[in-house]
C-alpha cells in the first residue's frame, strides 16, 4: 500500500512539473511575440520582461527599459499597441 501511495505521489509531482514547464514555455513565447509586435510598431522596448494577461489577445507588456505597453486586438481585429 505504501508503495502505491509513493508511486501516485511521484506521478502527481511529475505532472505538476510538466505543466509548470509548459506554462513557462508559453510565457516565453508570449513575451517574444509581444516584443516583436511592439518593435514592428516602431516603439522602444529592448526586451519584454513580464506580461500581464487581461483577457485573450489583451496584454500589458513591461519592457526592460521601463516602458509599458497595452497590446490588444481592436473590434476590427487589428493589433493596437498603446504606451501606458
Output the keywords.
alpha+beta; 4 strands; four-stranded antiparallel sheet
Could you characterize what this model shows?
There is one protein chain. The chain contains one helix and four strands, in the order H-E-E-E-E. The chain is of the alpha+beta class. The protein has one domain (2-83). The radius of gyration is 18 Å and the shape is globular. The N and C termini lie far apart (57 Å). The model is unreliable at 1-5 and 7-25 (pLDDT under 50).
Strand percentage: 25-35%
Indicate the overall shape.
Answer: globular
Distance, first to last CA: 57 Å
Number of helices: 1
The biggest sheet, with number of strands, parallel, antiparallel or mixed sense and barrel status, is: 4 strands, antiparallel
Could you give the count of β-strands? 4
Helical residue percent? 40-55%
Tally of structural domains: 1
Class computed from helices, strands and strand pairing: alpha+beta
Please mark out the parts with pLDDT under 50 across 5 or more consecutive residues, or reply none: 1-5, 7-25
Cross-sheet strand order for the largest sheet: 1-2-3-4
> What Rg is obtained from the alpha carbons, in whole angstroms?
18 Å
Overall pLDDT confidence: 78
**N to C succession of SSEs:** HEEEE
